Amino acid sequence: MSAARDAVLGRVRKSLGRKTISAEDRAELEARLAGHDRGVIPARTDLDAKSLVDLFVDMAAAVDTTIERVADADAVPAALSEFLARHNLGSDLRMAPDPWLDTIPWAGRPTLTITKGPSDGGDDVGVTAAFAAIAETGTLMLLSGPASPTTLNFLPGNHVVVLRASQVMGAYEDGWDALRDSGAMPRTVNFITGPSRTADIEQKILLGAHGPKRLHILLIEDT
Amino acid sequence: MEPTSRKFNANVRVALANDALQSALGKIESGFVVNRANAAARLPEFDALRDQARDIKDHTLDNLDFYLEAFESRVHESGGHVHWASSAADARRAILDICRSVDAKIVTKGKSMIAEEIGLNEYLEKNNIEPVETDLGEYIIQLRKEPPSHIIAPAIHLVKEQVEDAFRSAHEGMFDPGRSLEEPRALLEEARAVLRQRFLDADVGITGANFLIAATGSTVIVTNEGNGDLTQTLPTIHIVVASLEKVVPTLEDASTILRVLARSATGQEYSSYTTFSNGPRRNGDPDGPEQFHVVLLDNGRSDLLGGPVRDVLRCIRCGACMNHCPVYGAVGGHSYGWVYPGPIGAVLTPSFLGLDEGRHLPNASTFCGRCESVCPVRIPLLSLMRHYREQSFEEKISPPAERTGLGVWAFFARHPALYRFTTGLAMRALAWAGRKQGRFSTLPFAGGWTAHRDLPAPQGDTFQRQWSARGGRQR
After folding, report:
1. Domain identity same for B53 and B161
2. What pLDDT sits at residue B468?
3. Which DSSP letter does residue B32 get?
4. Which of residues B377, B396, B414 is at a domain's end?
5. pLDDT tens, position by position, A140-177
6. What is the rounded distance in angstroms from the CA atom of residue A131 to the CA atom of residue A177?
């Protein structure tokens, strides 16, 4: 394939009127690549931490995400059981093998049947954590990895995300900074804003096209 | 697909007489157009972001060689492969070779305009591989064996009864023939059930890319259905097919442009799913593809980069120009005769297929400028269409009658006194001829106009004389 590569790059350079990039220009471009400079960040996220969480909740609700705010991690199993009962979803949960999710006292709800790992398409309810939440548009940021299978975000009909208020950030760029601080880029970064939807038939918006029909967030007030 | 852009006029006649199409097109103004305006109004920084989006794209194009090489080396670092393709045929061949390496039978596809541009489905079928479109709109048109009529809403030309017909015939034997498919919800549930199995059966998943990130080697897809994510997560191999100009420098640059993409396209604040992919699955990952390939398509773009329509390479394929185009709204996407309809298609089609094929499209515009006014990366669509109009004239590609007509007009335009005299004469003659009715229902040489509406008979004086009489400024 190197012949095709040379041909394409050769034509690009011919159109740009240069054979090579000067050392000076190259240094400038490398600096831009490494720099993480931000563009305009919408002022709607210039808020204190508490108001930022409120903005996240409002923006998420506007795109049909449902949210329940709970006082602490201990309250999560009961809230999740109620969500299941409300929608007649049985008691089987397919959960991400996430060490933080394991700290939640699930044993207090012995009726919940929890299995862990990726989804094979047969699960009604997937439960995951999230890496961060972006208040600007009510968006969740999820990373793939051994503790967070990507299939859980898309295959189960219902996606439940257990989130802490302290994970809420303002802009997407805050999420990128946090990701770089936490280590390397994972295979997949999913920004999820509401449940799956389509408007492909007569522009009528319907939820649950191929991904989850419901996106439910249990938001732990830890701030 | 075999282009029919040269038959634009014939295509339009068919489209104007198609009632289902006209009913479907009538919904664009109250849908996409209103939603975009509302989304823009909710974000005070919207226009500043459009300026930045334009500048990011321009900067990247100015240094495209650097950013493509950077992207390639980052993909390699994350364990992926990059395949450079000069032409559509090269890209198809590269994709087929990858599919054959795992003896693929079924290939699921996320929505990709580049796959349409290179005619991928037809080619895979010829080579005994079954491509399955998974975006609902794309799935519908695949069943109907027709091309998309819109770059983000491929089945926008259809009403639900046509979708029902397509499903009843394609899904025969899979469901109760007596089932009700009247409601869009029922149609969606059926498509979801059929495609869910296809996602799980596929050997290879092919997606396009909205962005390629030079700093990280990421490919980015933006969807609402989640079909792109299932397409790229479940099979053994994920192939991304993307054109050169999709590259942007950093994650922050992509984030800036993403702020104007969904708002311009559907009026959403953000699409449901924005996904950044980096190479194949990692050690310990419980899911994800084992191989990750990017096919980088040139197909004439490197030449456009050095030419007069270079600005068209800024396009992020949001579809706002066609949503706001009165001509598109009247004739629909299929009239344009190739992959890209609307104002952006009126520039891309002559750019990729030449003026012999595409010369009608830049003329299929009232030059009202609505497309330009909503373009999130501020592409000067009118200037670019005008460039191709001029080239058609200068290179004698337009028919002799059209060029003679323009020549006659140019002669009068260069002789103002003669122009004023002749138009004054013609106007008085028309006013006299139409003095009884006040309008014309037929006119020689203007049947195309009077077939659809009357021409009012002139009243009063010529514009120029009225202008002078009211003290208008003279040049």
Report:
1. yes
2. 86
3. I
4. B414
5. 999 999 999 999 999 999 999 999 999 999 999 999 99
6. 12
The CA distance from B200 to the nearest CA of chain A, in Å, is 8
User: CA torsion, points A156, B278, B199, B225, in degrees to nearest 10?
Assistant: 60
pLDDT band at B475 (very low <50, low <70, confident <90, very high): low
Q: Is residue B364 part of a domain?
A: yes
Residues B161 and B78 in one domain: yes
pLDDT at B188: 97
- Indicate which of A32, A201, A204 best probes the interface with B, i.e. most B CBs within 10 Å of its own CB: A201
Pick from A37, A172, A206: CB nearest B184:
A206
- Predicted ipTM of the assembly: 0.98
Residue B351 shares a structural domain with residue B458: no
Q: Which of B302, B332, B359 is the last residue of a domain?
A: B302
- Residue B60 within a domain: yes
Same domain assignment for residues B351 and B421: no
Chain segment B142-187, per-residue pLDDT in tens: 999 999 999 999 999 999 999 999 999 999 999 999 999 999 999 9
Per-residue pLDDT at B455: 87
Q: Tell me, yes or no, whether B128 and B222 share the same domain.
A: yes
**Structure-token pair, residue B296:** 């980088």
Q: Work out the percent of chain A whose per-residue pLDDT is above 70.
A: 100
Number of domains into which chain B is organized: 3
Q: Map out the domains of chain A with their CATH numbers.
A: 1-35 (no CATH), 47-220 (3.40.50.10420)
Comparing A57-71, B180-194, B387-401, the range with the smallest average pLDDT is B387-401
**What is the model's pTM?**
0.95
pLDDT at B450: 83
Q: Which residues have C-beta within 8 Å of that of residue A196, sequence separation ≥ 6?
A: A154, A207, A208, A209, A210, A211, A212, A213, B224, B225, B226, B272, B273
Tell me how long chain A is. 223
Residue A88, min C-alpha distance to chain B (Å): 19
How confident is the prediction for chain B on average, in pLDDT? 95
In SS3 terms, B335-388 reads as HHCCCCCHHHHHHHHHHHHCHHHHCHHHHCCCCCCHHHHHCCCCCCHHHHHHHH
Tokens of B2: 């075999």
* B94 residue type, one letter: A
* Residue found under tokens 């009403």: B159
pLDDT 10s digits, A108-147: 999 999 999 999 999 999 999 999 999 999 999 999 999 9
| B14 shares its domain with B60 | no
What residues of chain A, 137 to 196, have a C-beta less than 8 Å from chain B?
Answer: 137-139, 144-146, 149-151, 153-155, 171-173, 176, 185-196
**Residue B180 CB neighbours (<10 A):** 8
